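Write out this protein's structure.
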Amino acid sequence: MVTYLNADGRAEKTEPFAEGWLDANTGTYRGRPVDVAVMKDGSLLVSDDYAGALYRISYAQ
């Protein structure tokens, strides 16, 4: 989840920025994010113990 703030510092809105580890229709897990690490470029590495995967989450302006 990410929360955006107004100029006065109050929460404006909250929305997911990474999702898909749970199938909402069946309730079946597709993954299990366990840990994160921040890279020098600001991206996040997310380890997924269920799928045995490592995801890199980056942003663009």
